[in-house]
Design brief:
There is one protein chain. About 30% of the residues are buried. Helix 1 crosses helix 2, helix 1 crosses helix 9 and helix 2 packs antiparallel against helix 5. Among the domains are: about 120 residues, no CATH class; about 80 residues, no CATH class. It is built from nine helices and ten strands. By secondary structure, the protein is an alpha+beta fold. The strands form four sheets. Strands 1-2-10 form a three-stranded antiparallel β-sheet. The chain has a three-stranded antiparallel β-sheet with strand order 6-5-9, with no helix packed on it. The chain has a two-stranded antiparallel sheet with strand order 3-4. Strand 7 and strand 8 form a beta hairpin. One of its GO terms (biological process) is innate immune response.
């Protein structure tokens, strides 16, 4: 029983990853068949699709029908299809020849060339983005696919778009233009902080995702020009708000400075393997498992 469950989980992880690599152009059934034929070997499957598109025509419908006798394969197909909106199922044919036709007919756009290049090297392009649920007062970072950036709040189970880049907040990196000193501190884009060295007003250059602590903490005390900063620097600016946790707590403000916009699905995405990856807790396999467990919890509730 345990080995069967593990087999299903490994197959489901492989299928989700393969579909994301090809932007959902491969149906669940076809992805399962390919992974079964190549024993979940992503390198071989991707090379087969990219380099042997013409040979896909030799695969007939009987092979797909053979999955009906494969309990693990059928469970994976049902699990993923239950997570997927009807619009996502872009193919309705009954044989794998359509994969070859679709891929051979794709225009040579930069996006499609990038898809094949990434698939050939077993790569899913991703980006670290910040999300926040205002109602749950919860902020988190997730590594999400570049082409579809969405994440789910673990408390209320609602899906959100990322915080706009020009509104992000947290630990920021600064580069003082006056003395050329680099430093870090709490900030939001658009809110200046004084340089620890020369006190010149310095804007953050980027907001950093959370990482495991790799060294001693800085002894420099936070300070900014926001009107409610606990260590306010003059002249303060009315209308700006300090993002430092101490200032937020002292003023009885919630932790979330700006909530993410709710995500409204367009039906163009697939159940991705990266959508719920915590940057500080999980490696890639654990990220996929996190997605699978969440989807099954939702279906049971």
């Amino acid at each position: 029983m345990q080995s069967t469950l593990q087999e299903e989980l490994e197959l489901e992880k492989s299928v989700r990853r393969l579909r994301e690599k090809f932007y959902g152009k491969i149906s669940v059934e076809k992805a399962v068949l390919l992974m079964r034929n190549f024993v979940n070997n992503h390198d071989q499957v991707c090379r087969y699709i990219v380099m042997c598109k013409d040979e896909l025509d030799a695969i007939g419908p009987d092979e797909i029908n053979s999955l009906r006798n494969d309990i693990a394969a059928m469970n994976v197909i049902n699990n993923i299809n239950n997570d997927t909106t009807p619009q996502i199922q872009t193919t309705t044919d009954n044989d794998i020849k359509d994969i070859a036709r679709q891929l051979k007919q794709l225009p040579l756009t930069e996006r499609n060339l990038k898809m094949f290049d990434n698939a050939s090297v077993n790569c899913i392009p991703s980006e670290d983005r910040q999300f926040a649920c205002k109602d749950c007062d919860k902020m988190w970072w997730r590594r999400v696919p570049e082409r579809k950036q969405v994440s789910k709040c673990h408390r209320c189970k609602r899906k959100f778009d990322p915080i706009p880049r020009d509104k992000m907040w947290g630990i920021a990196e600064f580069q003082c233009m006056a003395c050329n000193r680099s430093f870090k501190g709490h900030a939001q884009f658009g809110v200046a902080s004084p340089c620890y060295n020369c006190s010149s007003a310095t804007m953050p250059s980027r907001i950093l995702p959370p990482r495991r602590n790799t060294g001693p903490r800085s002894r420099n005390q936070h300070s900014c020009y926001a009107v409610d900063c606990y260590n306010r620097k003059e002249p303060h600016v009315i209308g700006l708000f300090c993002v430092h946790p101490r200032s937020r707590a002292r003023n009885n403000l919630c932790k979330v400075l700006l909530g993410s916009e709710p995500h409204f699905s367009t039906g163009s995405t697939v159940a991705t393997c990266l959508s719920q990856g915590s940057l500080t807790q999980w490696d890639l396999d654990d990220i996929i498992m996190d997605d699978i467990n969440e989807d099954r919890e939702d279906s049971d509730s």
